[in-house]
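seq as requested:
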Amino acid sequence: MDLKRDIYQELLAWKRRSNHKILELEGARQVGKTYILEKFAR
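struct tokens:
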């Protein structure tokens, strides 16, 4: 079961842009930052 995260669409938009600036993901502890980046990397 995958959780739907709103940020995932923003990550896909970042990937489609041609400039590919550095990606920084920040947020509170234990909100799923690592989970969403690992899912995005697959």
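The chain has a mean pLDDT of 85.
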